[in-house]
Amino acid sequence: MDGCEICGAFSPLVDTPVAPRTDVARLCGTCAAGLRGEAVPDGHWQALTNAMWSQNDAVKVLAWRLLNRLRAEGWATDALDMLYLEPEVEAWAKAVGPEVIHRDSLGAVLSAGDNVTLIKDLQVKGAGFTAKRGTAVRGISLVADNAGQIEGRVEGQRIVILTEFVRKR
């Protein structure tokens, strides 16, 4: 394949090792950034529905991990239901990779149990309210495989919050 092994883009490609093994997937800058938890264009990850059928096991592992990260979206759950991995590849996909470091909007390292403050009004999808700027979120949890997300309670609801919208207290 000449393009990105996830989305097919024909831009400069980077060999991306898939931990904990050293096998690589050739990814474009957008997909590589998305793996690090950075934002990607809307609909970008829908390319996983094709990538998950790759002959490259490293791409299958990435597809499995990303689809699990996107489980809240119906299409990702449907794709995961169809995805079959050989037992050895599935064990690799479930293996814990390198430590994920969560940082707030100013770059401070976040830990489980920290208290943070929202720096922007955030509309909470599915809950019907807006979490206001300045709201304190106490005792956060870290999303294990995504450095760009934390979990916390706001107005009694457990929600996922992007780390770019919080500041450590």
TrEMBL record:
Gene3D superfamilies assigned to the protein according to its UniProt record, in alphabetical order: SH3 Domains (2.30.30.40)
Domain Protein YjdM C-terminal: 102-168
Database matches in InterPro entries: YjdM_C
Pfam families membership: YjdM
Official protein name in the record: Alkylphosphonate utilization protein
